[in-house]
Write a structure and sequence with these properties.
This protein is α/β, with parallel strands linked by helices and 254 residues long. It has eight helices and seven strands; from the N terminus they run βαβαβαβαβαβαααβ. The longest helix has 22 residues.
């Protein structure tokens, strides 16, 4: 950490769902590299606690309560960022939900709606609000999942929504936001966070996942943060429309 560069000095980064887990790791990494970070989640208490932890590390941070499916919350997130910092350089869309472990054809309509609403639609609407404030050289990173490549089992419908983010990155947003804003995607493997605890806390399942990776381990929030920071930075200035799989060699694609 001491040798970390300052690729985001003078830049402003919004990270959704960033008070714990992968989102927090990304906000921390961008902040340690010099960004002013805007963190958000649904609960004020979580926002306050995360902001305090980041400030203790010397990071400039603004915490905003934002339920990404709430139009007013999304608007406040962008408005408060502009009021305080006057610009947006990076948007990382990390918010996701998995309200059902049923097979796709047994999933309740309300759960299908929530999956679509949080995992796909909200990412589009956040960018719709942020885009007018993003200037030349800005970048977007969508957080997908290894499950987007092979949606299966209890995560099948969740995986399908993450597949949608791959298409959204590659085809739609990268061309629509070019040439001023780059749009890329990170597809994390399994990381033992609160969100994935029902999988990673089960010893047998965890062991099976580790065996499927070439590196024989689960990912860390730092692994995901490093990949996201690379794609968001000027080091990736000639990369857009791409997905970086960060899954320890878990089979994903040819």
């Amino acid at each position: 950490m001491e040798k970390m560069g300052k690729r985001f000095q003078g830049k402003v980064a919004i990270v959704t769902a960033s008070t714990m887990g992968i989102g927090y790791g990304i906000a921390e990494r961008l902040g340690l590299e010099g960004a002013s970070v805007v963190i958000s989640s649904r609960k004020q208490k979580n926002v306050d606690e995360a902001a305090e932890k980041l400030r203790a590390r010397g990071i400039e941070v603004l915490g905003v309560v934002c339920h990404v499916s709430n139009e007013q919350h999304r608007k406040q997130l962008i408005d408060q960022t502009i009021q305080k910092y006057g610009r947006i350089d990076v948007v990382v869309s990390n918010a996701a939900a998995n309200p059902s472990v049923d097979a796709i054809l047994e999933t309740k309509e309300s759960a299908l709606d929530k999956l679509w609403e949080i995992n796909v639609k909200a990412a589009i609407l956040i960018l719709k609000d942020a885009a007018p404030h993003m200037q030349k050289g800005s970048s977007v990173v969508l957080i997908s999942s290894i499950a987007g490549y092979q949606p299966q089992g209890s995560m099948a419908m969740y995986g399908v929504t993450k597949t949608a983010l791959l298409g959204l990155t590659k085809v739609a947003l990268a061309s629509e936001m070019a040439p001023n804003t780059r749009v890329n995607c990170v597809a994390p493997g399994f990381v033992p966070t609160h969100f994935a605890s029902y999988i990673t806390s089960n010893k047998a399942i965890r062991g099976a996942i580790e065996e499927r990776t070439l590196l024989n381990r689960l990912g860390t929030t730092e692994d995901m943060a490093a990949a996201t920071a690379f794609l968001a930075s000027d080091d990736a200035s000639y990369i857009t429309g791409e997905t970086l799989v960060v899954a320890g060699g878990t089979p994903s694609r040819l």
